[in-house]
Amino acid sequence: MKNKEKIKPFKKEKIFLSHSYFKYPLPAMLLKELSTELKDINLYPSGGGYSQLCQVLAEHVGVNRENILPTNGSDEVIEIVTRAYQGEVLIPIPTFFQYEVSADRSGLPKVLVNCLHNREYNINYSAKQLKKTSLIWICNPNNPTGTGIPREKIIDILQRTKGMVVVDECNYEYLEETMVDLIDKYDNLVISRSFSKNFGLAGLRLGFAISNPQNIRRLAAFGQYFRVNRMAEKAAEKVLKYLDYYQKAWEKIKKTRDKFVRQINELGFFAYDSKANFVLVEFRDKEECKKIWKHLKERGVYALPGWENEFSGLGDQFIRFTIGEDWEMDRVVEALSDYVKRCRRGDLNPHRHTPTTP
Amino acid sequence: MKNKEKIKPFKKEKIFLSHSYFKYPLPAMLLKELSTELKDINLYPSGGGYSQLCQVLAEHVGVNRENILPTNGSDEVIEIVTRAYQGEVLIPIPTFFQYEVSADRSGLPKVLVNCLHNREYNINYSAKQLKKTSLIWICNPNNPTGTGIPREKIIDILQRTKGMVVVDECNYEYLEETMVDLIDKYDNLVISRSFSKNFGLAGLRLGFAISNPQNIRRLAAFGQYFRVNRMAEKAAEKVLKYLDYYQKAWEKIKKTRDKFVRQINELGFFAYDSKANFVLVEFRDKEECKKIWKHLKERGVYALPGWENEFSGLGDQFIRFTIGEDWEMDRVVEALSDYVKRCRRGDLNPHRHTPTTP
After folding, report:
1. What's the CATH number where B215 sits?
2. Which residues contact A162 (CB under 8 A, 6 or more apart)?
3. With an 8 Å Cβ cutoff, are A44 and B202 in contact?
4. CB neighbours (10 Å) of residue A252?
5. Which of A196, B67, B141, B225 lies 20 to 30 A from B77 at CA?
């Protein structure tokens, strides 16, 4: 019964597509179960090894308890990994900015490698870069481009470096491809996952690292004893009972996403194919992008432009849209369509809209 | 109405006095208010500056918003401060072990200064130590001795060092003495507070640092953007509406504590005077202490002995008891009284109980 709850969308006047959180309500029964845990929040979380939580996460992922390190959101995986494997950090831009933030915090040298050429995101580290580095970031699917990174490419990198390769799979639930089966084969592989984006627990902060037991022990030494709060700890187990609900939501979001990509491209802008819950749109230049950003904002649509510093190495001609419900994405398409029409009429000159797709 | 809720004790078979959490239930109305926040846990916490949370905490403490840094429990204040002011760390033992853990994590040199002489805990750093150090810890009241540190002593230290002096006031609610009024006068003063121990939010993890805006900005650079979860963020404001309830509970705990200290001393053991929600008891030696620890455990009483590594520099002849409800502390006293009687009869030989108070 509880697994068959209907997915009812939130109703909001403004459309917030900046943060890539789960935009559907959590199952009502789940919320009820969670509320019964509140009476025990005077107690400390399990702390330290978080063995019960590790067990739950390990079963979910299909590994052993010793392969798991729960963290205060997957941002903390980034922070801990950075502190544990200090040295030169390879960052494939444009990508999520926290890799850079954590490297800066530890005062580490960064190499920002541009992987976006001719509107294709391809990770292409040189042999020299891979030899020198201590830590290599791969966001899969990449944020903000939404690109899935081919498995062979990641294996190739694992084989060509002694640095630690961290695959950020915080959007695994949309890509459905993982490197988890290789944690015993490659000593230098750490995987990061999250409950924020796709399970609707962004507010509770729950992420985890997956690797061999030796790496996990090393990482654990850099985390605080009580790093995961008690509600997040309890929520993991409960949330996973509602996988059916989430899977339905993810399917729905994928459909909405693919339709959105088509519609944006039909309008003459360039939307990147996405394997995540967001879509990156490239406009002609910064000026056009700023104009469109303002146009959208005036219509109550908030999305994340390149200049907001949420990404490393993303130009000002980009806006990332989190995929919301159909009606929300329809509003974005309408607004953009309206922009195109106005441009044709000359309302929004001097910079007329020029279709950028071939 | 909601502020007048009766304090009803939990009923449990075993008596857990190891962790120093708030052992009374949270107000029912508060739990209800918190449960309404669960539906929004798909949203991220405010993040970054946490300005609304800072405002709430600042008003509570009587400072400005810019003086506050909210953290994932006060353990994170310890971690962040240690990372921000790297160098030699002065730790006044016996004391809370996290100061040492964080120093070790950053690979910093530690100076453990023994402050317990003739059953009196006095912080006595030498001029040489104060000159050389980057970071000085003062736990007030000290954990585990429960000793309140005189204000003049802390001011004296502030004046004699250029190192950062961190006063851990996570048990301020029992001591009711603070250094907060001096954050503008002394550039090298940071204060740490917690909602875990005395507001019953140990499970949610909420601590904060108080200092001048310049120090707070420096500390902030070492914390993650989403370090405090959304439930903790919301709970702070709600909890503070029930101050009356908490104050009544704290008064009750203080009475229970002082009675417990008297009773322990009457039995011939040595209980330290405490300004916190725990009491440290010193037994003749490690052997007697281990025997008593086992004796208590067999009677369902769990407390924290020196050998459990929760404290820096605490001998094996000590046990720290968190103050629970009256009936719990009565059970401890009964068990110890029973131990004394058996010793007199010779049941627990070869080490007969020898009263250790003058």
Report:
1. 3.40.640.10
2. A131, A188
3. yes
4. 16
5. A196
Q: Out of A34, A72, A76, whose CB is closest to B38? A: A34
- The two structure tokens encoding residue B149: 């540190």
Put simply, the answer to whether B231 touches A23 (Cβ < 8 Å) is no
**Same structural domain for residues A94 and A174?**
yes
Show residues of chain B in contact with A108, CB under 8 Å. Answer: none
A168 in any annotated domain:
yes
B253 and B203 together in one domain: no
Residue of B302, B248, B255, B299 whose CA lies nearest to B277: B255
Return the bridge partners of A113, or none: A92
Residue A321 forms part of a structural domain: yes
Q: Say how many domains are in chain B.
A: 2
pLDDT in tens, chain B (358 residues): 445 555 554 445 799 999 988 989 999 999 999 999 999 999 999 998 999 999 999 999 999 999 999 999 999 999 999 999 999 999 999 999 999 999 999 999 999 999 999 999 999 999 999 999 999 999 999 999 999 999 999 999 999 999 999 999 999 999 999 999 999 999 999 999 999 889 999 999 999 999 999 999 999 999 999 999 999 999 999 999 999 999 999 999 999 999 999 999 999 999 999 999 999 999 999 999 999 999 999 999 999 999 998 999 999 999 999 999 999 999 999 999 999 998 887 766 544 445 554 4
Rounded to whole angstroms, the Cα distance separating A221 from A224 reads: 8
Predicted TM-score (pTM) of the model is 0.92
Percent of residues in chain A assigned helix, strand, coil, to nearest 5: 45, 15, 40
B177/B248 same-domain check: no
> From CA A282, how far away is CA A264, in angstroms rounded?
10
**Complex confidence, ipTM:** 0.91
The whole domain housing A191 covers 39-242
Please check whether residue B34 lies inside any domain of the structure: no
Q: What is the least distance, in Å, from the CA of A249 to any CA of chain B?
A: 14
- Show which of A242, A268, A296 is a domain's final residue: A242
Encoded amino acid at B48, one letter: G
Helix (H, G, I), strand (E, B) or coil at A309: coil
Whether B173 and B275 map to the same domain: the answer is no
In angstroms, the Cα distances linking B111 to A221, B75, B126, B159 are: 21, 20, 11, 20
Does residue A57 sit within a domain? yes
Determine the angle formed by the axes of helices A326-345 and A243-266, rounding to 10 degrees. 10
- Minimal Cα–Cα distance from A354 to chain B, Å? 36
